[in-house]
Amino acid sequence: MAPDWSSIPVDLLRLVANKAHSLEDYVHFGAVCWSWYHAATSTKNNNLKSLFPWVMLADRENNDSHGFYSLSSNKVYEFDLPEIVGKRCWGSPFGWLVIAGIDNMEIQLFNPLSRASISLPSQTSFMGDENENSIMHYWSVNKVVISSNPPCMVMAIYSCYRKLAFVKPGDHVWSKIRLDNTIGTGFSDITYFNGDFFIAKCTGQLLVCDFSGIDPVAIEFAPSPLGVADEARYLLYLVDLGGELCMVFRYSDVIETINNISMKTRSFEVYKLDMNTKTWKQMDSLGDWSLFVGNNYTFSVRDFGYTDCRSSCIYFTHDYCQCSDQISGNDTGIYNYEGGEIHALPVSQDLYSVLRPPLWITPQLF
After folding, report:
1. Up-side HSE of residue 181: CA atoms within 13 Å toward CB?
2. What's the CA gap between 285 and 267, in Å, rounded?
3. Is residue 138 within a helix (H) or strand (E), and if so which, with residue range?
4. CB of 196 closer than 8 Å to CB of 209
5. Do residues 97 and 89 lie in contact, with contact meaning Cβ atoms separated by under 8 Å?
6. Which of 314, 351, 309, 242 lies closest to 52 in space, CA to CA?
7. Which residues sit opposite 238 in a β-bridge?
8. Which contacts (CB < 8 Å, 24+ apart) does range 251-257 have?
9. Most buried among 10, 159, 253, 321, using CB within 10 Å?
10. What is the residue-wise DSSP string for 31-95?
């Protein structure tokens, strides 16, 4: 008699499903029958939040098809996504893209697999006092991060002065975040950590957003790490690394040719924050964690033994100022944090686009 696979207890199925850590594994698991699909997509399945990410490849001119490269399967998946044509995008570890329209100034959350979308207030609600020049609006938003799966809070770094704004579920306009008088603008990255939004200034100073009053305000939380190389050419990221708040410095070299200027990543430094003493300590190793930095919410993933995915490495994509047509190149790769070597991403497609560079996203089916 053939076994009745649909009769396996759901709790046992969830245990098996929790051993999978790629979207491909979940799709194959859930395709067996309805009970297996239910176990794979159950809210009790915590591993849905830790699937290994994909890199959404660069935009292709005059093409609605978009490629997503899976590190775990070493395959490129093509999706027809007219919804994001001509729009800027930022990735997230929650399966959602943040997309911003250039002509209509609309901002949305968009899941490229389920095609679900959630509208956010227009960019015009926080650009009212900015230069109305269309070129300024074209690059008005520098970065957008979401706190969790929707419904969620959303925070943006916007304008050439790198100011802050946020929305929460039900808001019809973006609210600007007031700054302590001692704090100027110029923000580099945002992360949602232990129920709070933390913001990094380009100088390395760490702020936290206080929502307890009538108006939200960003206040100083910790000084910049000591010993950071004194040079201007670095990018700065914030990340939750296994329950530790960390600051990541990405150092680059300028490569000048007759035709253009390109940036090439040279090295990374990662500093872990002691939440009690507000001091930073440089890390010698990332352990069995990997970081994903670039045009996306910065996030970490634990190594689950995939042969093509490396622990204690930083996966990075091109993330330099796209508003300058003089800065070009394909600054992507895998940085071995302990050894210092940089390896190429194992994907052959073009990884550079002025409008939409490649980004990291953790795929979710719903």
Report:
1. 0
2. 14
3. helix 134-138
4. yes
5. yes
6. 309
7. 247
8. 252/320, 252/331, 255/329
9. 159
10. TS-HHHHHHHT-TT-GGGGSPPPEEEPPP-TT--EEEEEETTTTEEEEEE-GGGTTEEEEB-TTS
Q: Give CA separation, 302 vs 5, 53, 95, in Å.
A: 31, 11, 17
Q: Are the C-beta atoms of 30 and 36 separated by less than 8 Å?
A: yes
pTM, whole model, 2 decimals?
0.86
pLDDT score at 48: 47
Q: Around 135, how many Cα atoms within 13 Å sit in the side-chain half-sphere?
A: 4
Radius of gyration of the chain (CA): 21
On whether the CB atoms of residues 336 and 12 are closer than 8 A, the answer is: no
Per-10-residue mean pLDDT of the chain, 366 residues long, equals 65 63 56 60 51 83 81 85 88 93 83 92 70 51 91 89 87 88 81 96 93 89 82 85 96 80 88 97 94 94 67 89 51 93 80 72 83
**C-alpha pair distances (Å), 8 with each of 4, 21, 32, 38, 127:** 8, 21, 12, 12, 56
Q: Give 209's strand partners.
A: 218
Helical pair 10-17 and 23-30, crossing angle rounded to 10 deg: 150
